[in-house]
Design a protein that fits this description.
This protein is of the alpha+beta class. The chain is built from 21 helices and 18 strands.
Length: about 575
C-alpha cells in the first residue's frame, strides 16, 4: 500500500506545489493513492512519491489525474511550471501540448529566468507578476496561503494582497474562485483592455482569447445599467472588429454580480441619460455557470472554425466524393492542415448527411444511439450550424417521436465541471423539445459502442465521429451480428434507462438530478435566456456556428413546470 506523505511544503518549489495540489484534489474526491493510481495506469507508490516531490511525474500521468479528479486543468498547468523550473529554461516547445495557454507560457519563461514574483491576495488567490503584468495562477492559492500563514518560505517572493487597484470590482477573484481553469491577464499597456480572458480548451477544443472591459453597473428593475465614464476608451474598445466583452459590475464585495454583453451587441445599446453614457444589459446575461458554459463553448468552436474557414470549405468540397459511398472511414490525415475542431465539424456534418440519406430506406422505426458524454461534445448539438436542422429533419422524416440513447457513467459526471454538465443537459433538452425520447445508461461497458441508427433485428446505419479513430466512420449494414449487437444495446438501455419517465419534463428533471444540477434554477435561468436569446451575450463570427439550437433549448427548458 502507498504511504501518505506526512508533511508537504508547497511553497518550496513548483514541483512541491504540484504534489501538494495533487494530494489536495485526490483527498477532495475521496480517493486513496492506490485507487487513483489504478485509474491513471500507475502505482499508488508512484503517486506517493509525486505528492512528496520525490519523483517528477510524466505529463500523461498528471493529465490523467487532472481528468479523473475533475481539477479543471490546474494540475496540468502546474506541471508546466514545474517542468520549466526543472529544465532551467531550456526549450520545451516540442513537449508542450496545444492547449497550454499563453499566460502559462509567459509564466514558464519568467519562472525559469527567475523574474517572477508570486503574491497572495486577501481572497487566497495566487498572482504571478512578470514584467509589470499580473497573471492569476489559479486554485492552488488555498494551499499556498496556508503554508505562507505558517511561516513557510515562498517559491520566489510572496507578499499579501494584490490591492484594490489591481481588481477594483472583484472580478478576477470571483472568476478564479468559480472557474479555476480560466486564466486572466492584464495587458501592459492595456490599449483599452482591462483583462484578457484565456478560455481553456478541452479534448478537442483549442482554447480562445477574449478581451474584456469592465465598468460599474447597477440593477434597475429587470435590467442592469452599465455606466461608461470614459466614453472614448469604451468607444475604441467596442469599435474593434474582433470579439470583445463589455462587463458591468454590480452588487457588493460579499455578493458581486457581473453582466456580460458582446461588444458588437453593446454598440447598439449605448444611450445617454442625464449626460452619462450607459448601456443596458439584461439580467439574463449575469455571469454564472450557465453563461460561462455558453461563452466557453461558443468562443472555442467559433474561433477555431473561423480560423480555418477557407481551408475547411475547400476540404469539404474535396471530400464530397465520399457522399456517393454507403460505407467509408476517413482519417484525419485526409485533412492534415485543419485543426481538431474543424475535423469535428466535418465528421459531424458528414454523419448527419449520411443518416438523412439512408434513413428513408430503413424497414421500420429505428432507435438512435449517440456517443456524447461531456459538455464539450454535446455542445456541438447546440452550436454547429447543421445540428439543429438535422434533428428537425430526422423528426420530420420519421413522422413522429423517436428514441436516442446515451451512455454517461457516473465517473464521467463526477469528472465534468458544472458548466459542461449544463451543456449536456441543454443538448438533451433540445432533443426532447422535438419529440426525441432520451434514454441514459451508466454502464461503462457501452462506452465503446459506435453511434448508430438501428431498425431492430433488421438493418443498421453506422455514423460515428465522436471519440473515433478518424474524422468519421459510416456504413449501412444488414450483417446479423452487428444488427443484433446494436438491437441489444438499444433494448438494454430502453429497459433500464435511469431517467425513464412518462413525460419529457419528468425525464429532464431526472437527468438534472443525475447531473447534480438544480432544477428550479435551470428553469429560471433558461427562461431568462430564452426571452433575450444568447447572441447578445456572445455573437458568433463563423458562418458554421449558430445560436438557433441553443436558444431553442433554453426556451424549451424555461417553459417547463418547476414542480414536474
Amino acid at each position: 500500500m502507498a504511504q501518505e506523505p506526512r508533511k508537504l511544503t508547497p511553497t518550496k518549489s513548483a514541483q512541491d506545489l504540484l504534489g501538494a495540489e495533487l494530494r489536495h484534489w485526490r483527498k477532495l474526491r475521496g480517493l486513496s493513492q492506490d485507487e487513483l493510481g489504478a485509474r491513471v495506469f500507475t502505482s499508488g507508490d508512484t503517486l506517493s512519491k509525486v505528492e512528496g516531490a520525490k519523483r517528477f511525474p510524466s505529463r500523461e500521468v498528471v493529465e490523467g489525474c487532472d481528468e479523473v479528479l475533475g481539477a479543471g486543468g490546474i494540475l496540468t498547468r502546474l506541471w508546466d511550471l514545474a517542468d520549466a523550473q526543472r529544465l532551467d529554461g531550456r526549450t520545451r516547445s516540442a513537449r508542450q501540448s496545444n492547449h497550454v495557454d499563453t499566460s502559462s507560457l509567459d509564466l514558464q519563461g519568467a519562472l525559469s529566468a527567475g523574474t517572477m514574483k508570486l503574491r497572495i491576495d486577501e481572497e487566497g488567490n495566487v498572482w504571478a507578476e512578470v514584467n509589470r503584468r499580473s497573471f492569476l495562477v489559479g486554485s492552488a492559492a488555498a494551499l499556498l496561503s496556508q503554508e505562507t500563514a505558517s511561516g513557510a518560505t515562498g517559491l520566489n517572493s510572496l507578499s499579501p494582497g494584490v490591492g484594490a487597484a489591481d481588481d477594483p470590482f472583484g472580478f478576477a477573484r470571483m472568476v478564479t474562485s468559480n472557474w479555476p481553469d480560466l486564466r486572466l491577464s492584464r495587458p501592459v499597456p492595456d490599449f483599452g483592455v482591462d483583462w484578457t480572458a484565456l478560455m481553456p480548451g478541452g479534448r478537442s477544443m483549442l482554447g480562445a482569447s477574449i478581451p474584456l472591459q469592465l465598468h460599474p453597473a447597477r440593477s434597475d428593475g429587470g435590467r442592469a445599467l452599465v455606466s461608461i465614464p470614459d466614453q472614448r476608451r469604451a468607444g475604441s474598445f467596442l469599435d474593434r472588429p474582433g470579439r470583445g466583452l463589455l462587463i458591468g459590475a454590480a452588487g457588493n464585495d460579499e455578493s458581486p454580480q457581473f453582466y456580460l454583453l458582446d461588444g458588437r451587441n453593446a454598440r447598439g445599446r449605448l444611450s445617454r441619460t442625464a449626460g452619462i453614457q450607459e448601456v443596458t444589459a439584461p439580467l439574463a446575461y449575469e455571469l454564472d455557470d450557465l453563461t460561462y458554459g455558453i461563452l466557453w463553448a461558443v468562443s472555442n468552436y467559433d474561433d477555431a472554425l473561423q480560423a480555418d474557414d477557407q481551408d475547411l470549405a475547400e476540404t469539404r468540397t474535396d471530400l464530397e466524393r465520399y457522399d456517393r459511398l454507403s460505407s467509408s472511414a476517413v482519417s484525419r490525415e485526409a485533412a492534415p492542415g485543419l485543426n481538431s475542431v474543424a475535423h469535428m465539424w466535418l465528421g459531424s456534418d458528414f454523419c448527419a448527411r449520411h443518416i438523412l440519406k439512408a434513413l428513408p430506406d430503413l424497414p421500420e422505426l429505428p432507435a438512435f444511439w449517440t456517443r456524447e458524454q461531456r459538455g464539450e461534445e454535446a455542445s456541438a448539438w447546440l452550436i454547429f450550424d447543421h445540428k439543429y436542422p438535422y434533428l428537425q429533419a430526422t423528426t420530420k422524416a420519421l413522422g413522429g417521436p423517436s428514441t436516442r440513447a446515451f451512455c454517461v457513467p457516473e465517473a464521467v459526471v463526477q469528472a465534468s465541471p458544472r458548466h459542461e454538465r449544463i451543456l449536456l443537459f441543454l443538448a438533451v433538452a433540445l432533443m426532447e423539445s422535438l419529440g426525441i425520447h432520451a434514454q441514459f445508461t451508466t454502464d461503462a461497458s457501452y462506452e465503446a459502442v459506435e453511434g448508430f441508427v438501428v431498425s431492430p433485428d433488421k438493418e443498421a446505419i453506422i455514423a460515428n465521429w465522436v471519440r473515433g479513430d478518424g474524422m468519421w466512420h459510416v456504413d449501412v449494414t444488414g450483417r446479423t451480428s452487428i444488427v443484433r449487437a446494436f438491437t441489444n444495446a438499444a433494448g438494454d438501455v430502453a429497459a433500464d434507462s435511469i431517467i425513464e419517465a412518462p413525460t419529457a419534463a419528468e425525464r429532464l428533471r431526472a437527468l438534472a438530478h443525475y447531473l447534480d444540477l438544480p432544477w428550479s434554477w435551470l428553469i429560471h435561468r433558461c427562461a431568462q435566456l430564452g426571452k433575450y436569446g444568447t447572441s447578445g451575450l456572445i455573437q458568433s463570427r463563423s458562418r458554421l456556428v449558430s445560436s438557433a439550437g441553443l436558444d431553442a433549448a433554453c426556451s424549451y427548458v424555461g417553459a417547463l413546470p418547476a414542480d414536474s
